[in-house]
Design goal:
This protein has 289 residues and is α/β, with parallel strands linked by helices. The chain has a single domain, classed as Rossmann fold, CATH 3.40.50. 39% of the residues lie in helices and 19% in strands. The chain has a nine-stranded mixed sheet, with helices on both faces. Strand 8, helix 8 and strand 9 form a beta-alpha-beta unit. It is globular and about 50 Å long. The chain starts with a strand and ends with a helix.
Amino acid sequence: MLVRVPAPREFAPMRGEFMDVGGTRLYYFAAGTRGGGDPVVFLHGFPGSSHGWRELTPLMPDGRRLVVVDLMGCGRSDGPGGTFARNGTIDEHAGLIRRLMDDLNIPRAAIVGHSLGGVIAQSIAVHHPDRISALALLSTPTFDAWPRTLARLARTVRPLAGILGAPVLASFVHGSAIRGYTDRDSGRRSLDQTLVAYPSRLGTPTLLAHLSALRDPGIAALGARLGTIRVPTAVIWGADDPFLPASLGERITAAIPNATLGVIPGARHFVAEDAPEQCATIIGHLLNR
């Protein structure tokens, strides 16, 4: 079932839609042009939404269909539930994205994933390699590494979650995540936009589910299989990422055959928002490999 809704203001020429995927309603918007190769699917991290790609997507090269998704439990999409997704695990996220691609008639795509979105992209690349033509991983957890600040926050607030409520929890996440931006004012506006969904609509359980997913044991299992990825891959990192060091990007690059590493000086964890021009250039080169 498809329901059309207005596109976000930042993407005036683009169209936003809801797609019912196995009982979970996902929001996405489409951009770009067709004819130059496989589509490009963008998967944001946590805390985030499709809003996080607002600066980068207009800089992408012509000739590619761009599909920018709000992950389950983020932005305008539904939280965990429905007939298909119930817990918000990495595998469930990956399954929803594959089914969304099916519904949009996308057999294969280049997938660009940031942070949690990068883990989902890894899952698709490892378990369903036929669905991926290229891979870009931006500041993404892998192996035994995850954003420990947010994981510690999850352990701290979980016993008090019912008392604190979604507005207070969202403010705690905001205070932790803001360190991931070079420009704190821009980061504050971005987090205000993305985190408002939790107190207004998605609620405390969804917020806690995302925090818990940062410790999903499947992340380490994926890291052990990165060597099976055979598509062209670009690893992109902010040199000043306070959550995941650039040395992790070096480990990922060494593990994936045919991978390149771009470390962007001055950028932090939300590298696509800190340095959209540099990220777009690297991804553009990847699509031409």
